[in-house]
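Hi V.,

You were right to ask for the full record rather than a summary. Here it is.
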Amino acid sequence: MAYWIVRQEIEHLDLVAYRAAAVDLFSDLKADVDAYYKTTCLLCDNPDAAVKYFLWVKTKTCQSCKKSFDLFAGYLLARYSYSEPCNGR
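Predicted structure:
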């Protein structure tokens, strides 16, 4: 049923116009938010390394010393999941 509904909705879609609008949208979004998705590579010090994802970690405050600490066991999700760990500069 879902397939049929989607097919009916996009059946008359102008693919050329859709692709042009998507390219424009992507370009505008990239100009607006690209700077927020950059970091410095820990392996080669490249200051324009692209961020793959962010981790939002809850924190708690110690009732004794009042310092904040992360409620997360570790930040390593994968190690060298690509053939080369860093593309350098």
